[in-house]
Amino acid sequence: MFEKSGRYFRIIIVFIKYNLFSLLYTDIKQDYVSDKKCSCQIDQKYRNNAVKLRKAFEELGPTFIKLGQTLSNRPDLLPRAYIMELDRLHDDVEVLPFESMRKSFEADCICDTVPEEHSPFCYHCNDILDLYNEFDTKPIASASIGQVYRAVIDGREVAVKIARPDVIDTINLDLMIMKDLKRLLFGVFGFGKDFDVDGFLDDFKDMLTRELDYKSEALNIERFKENFKDNEDVKIPDVFWDYTRETVLVMEFIHGNQIQDLHDIDRDKSTKLVKLISDSYLKQIYLDGFFHADPHGGNIIALEDGSIALLDFGAVGVLDSELQWNLFNLFYGVFKRDVDIATDYFFRIGSVKDRNIDVHAFKEDMDMVISRQHFSKAGEKQSDNYVMLAVKYNISMPRIFSRLERALFLVEDVCMKLDPAFNIMDEAEALVGKSMRARFSPDMVARTIQKDAANYYLMFRSLPARVDHAFDSLDYVMKSIERNTAARQKRQSILKKGLFVLGFAILATAIFVWFS
Q1: Domain boundaries along the sequence of the chain
Q2: 157 φ, ψ (degrees, to nearest 5)
Q3: Distance between CA 50 and CA 88 in Å, rounded?
Q4: Is 289 left (phi over 0), alpha (psi -120 to 50) or beta?
């Protein structure tokens, strides 16, 4: 109770410190024309205010840092000036001494119930420094959720990522407070009555839950490793499962240079790196349906042999088969410069709220987006054009779409820093051909036939019962009809008799009156 009250007080103090309540209300509710570089006068004014929001989020810790990063994916909610500033949010925080980190992992005992049988990998029953051949207690990286250390296991260098103590408690407190104040908080942001606050918070909570569970991240690594097992140009680190827990992730340490640190490299090398990065990412989306959701320059490593390695698999995206197929056909329509195909599959991906949407105007804008995608050579990123198109025509896109758009935006950013003339359409032809071959390969056709055969077998197996049920239903209907027919005939007979009696009575009365 007191912890929650204290956290409430802390959040309010920080918001007041940066004057966020009045600042956000006056800025975010404005409707104005912005350009890609936010160079207009209003953008510059708002950019200064957005800096205050970023600093406030950094000061409030991991939950708000992640919230800011999530909002930076939503140009449908915030002005571009705020999007650009929140995209700069980083997790660099004060380093905790190793002794303070111990309680994150030492409380979890994995030993058997028999007291004398202690696991040699248990952090509770053994000192962590004894479990590794070497362990450097000075972290090589520090973030709001965890810290990373370098160690050695059986002669192999490993990276040991350990969650910060009590980070889950802080995040849970913040999530409770956000739920308490959701209408006020998101009302201040001016998101409007159509904004699904509960859906946003649920998705945000799910994302944090996945990122806080290092075993879940280890499973993501294994899945990426399986997807790239036949690709020697993309390296995925090994996981050391015996040493991995929900709060500890141990994986192979990969030597190389972060893409963001590469400067003045020769043209051939940069061209090869750009091709590897873009090809690997297109594969993740359109072939695997499982993609890295945070592919910034610090999570992609350039290796000495010319290949690349991927790191940090806490944030991923999963595309179901229908969405993946629709995305591919949208991509194919853009690649072929076919506005009708692109429009058709864009509408299949999203949900059109306005039934009176001007389709002709939409196609005109789609044509412009396609033209920019193909002919832009000035280092201008194009990935966010689609979400802006959805915003303009009030089309609701799946939640995963904003995560995918941000990931593509980051990939474009990485590639353009290596090659300013990069255009993802240059890599599209090979991807389209590969995807078509994969979808209509003999193996895929055989699997489809096998799947359909199983469905048909189940259908025929249940056919006798279905036929019996159909005949029973038909028999019931016929009996009902018969009963209804008999009742109707009886009513008609009674009615006829009644009419006859009534007619006879009228006739008798008339005769009686006449002769009277």
Answers
A1: 2-90+181-207, 255-439, 462-516
A2: -75, 135
A3: 11
A4: left
